[in-house]
Amino acid sequence: MENRISTLGRAEVSVLQTNKVIRNTYMLLSLTLAFSALTAGLSMAMGAPRLGILITLAGYFGLLFATTKFRNSSLGIVFVFALTGFMGFTLGPIISSYLALPNGSSIVMQAMTGTAAIFLGLSAYAVTTKKDFSFMGGFLMVGILVAFLAGLGAIFFEIPALSLTVSAAFVMLMSGLILYETSNIIHGGETNYIMATVSLFVSIFNLFTSLLHLLGFANND
Fold first, then answer.
1. FRET pair for 69, CA 20 to 30 Å: which of 119, 190, 195, 217?
2. Class of residue 88 by CB neighbours under 10 A (exposed 0-12, middle 13-18, buried 19+)
3. Contacts of 14 (CB under 8 A, 6+ apart)
4. Dist. CA 67–CA 5, nearest whole Å
5. How far apart are CA 163 and CA 150, in angstroms?
6. pLDDT tens digit string along 195-210?
7. Domain count along the chain
8. Residue 103: alpha-carbon gap to chain centroid
């Protein structure tokens, strides 16, 4: 009887911890998305040029390393805002280049709407069904690595067809990552809301930029 009570107690604590991680993750995600939008708007207002692939990668991985290292302290919050703010700043020039096109505002809005619909739809599906998508972890890791390397190849060797293929692959991979990470939080696989926020933010960021690229091509731009 005591063992049963103890088990029920642990289960209740586990549920409360999971709910806390979910609540903190989505609260922090909302704040970082707003901050990223602010820095993107700032870079657009400044007319900031693209930073270049090397500076962008160095900034991203450097801030990601710092965020991961301090994920269990208050400094982790500082670095997650630094990371997402930096990513937003790099996004500003990209959006500006699309807005300069004749139907650029429509392309950007379509990409934003599509990103929101995919994220909310997949998150709601994972939360309501409570299905375990942990089996996707290995596939997503390999797929993202391959797509990332292919994307670098498309940039350095200037291969438009490969670039489009990578964008299409990233739409699928980021959709899978949203399902995986949301499921991971629900089932207690991810207990750190800072790292959960980073994972979901990166998914949304890459999903948006990939849709932007694909929609731009579909509109012959």
1. 119
2. buried
3. 188
4. 39
5. 8
6. 999 999 999 999 999 9
7. 1
8. 26
CA 6 to chain centre: 38
Containing 192, the helix (H) or strand (E) segment is none
Q: Which of 88, 118, 113 is nearest to 182 (CA)?
A: 118
Question: Contact at 8 Å (CB) between 94 and 43?
Answer: no
pLDDT tens digits for range 114-143: 999 999 999 999 989 888 998 998 999 999
Would you say how long the chain is, in residues?
221
**Distance, CA of 27 to chain centre:** 15
Which tokens is 154 given?
């498309």
CA dist list (Å): 200 to 85, 145, 214, 216, 217: 15, 17, 21, 24, 26
Amino acid letter, 80: V
**Residue type at 172 in one-letter notation:** M
Domain that holds residue 110: 2-218
Cα(112)–Cα(115) distance, integer angstroms: 5
DSSP classification of residue 136: G
Cβ within 8 Å of residue 151, ≥6 positions away: 163, 166, 170
- Surface-to-core class of residue 95, CB atoms within 10 Å of its CB (0-12 exposed, 13-18 middle, 19+ buried): buried
